[in-house]
Amino acid sequence: MQKKSRGRPPSPHSIRAKAKTAGLSERSLYYxxxxxxxxxxxxVAATQHGEMTIGAAIRELRGTAPPDRFNKLVSAWNRCSDDxxxxxxxxxxDAGIVAPVRPGHVKSEI
Length: 110
What we know:
The protein is mainly α. Helix content is about 55%, strand content about 0%. It is built from six helices and no strands. It starts with 14 loop residues before the first helix and ends in a 16-residue tail after the last helix.
């Protein structure tokens, strides 16, 4: 619910005025302030350089960021049955994405 303007412009020191000047929503301005006060210089720098949105930074800060694609794949793999995993590996093998490995010649890069 928004407050009604009583015909006068907002104070130049109000959050609404600062958000409008910065081209942000009031919520984004609050989030930006939370990020800056957190002491997470990596998030501050990433948002300032346009590498990360304020929303993504606040989710990372609060620990609510969705898993990245790799972790989604690992999670999906772990939910699969043995038959489904073998079917997927066969598809990768047939597509030439992976090569068969002889026992005792496994090289881990992770």
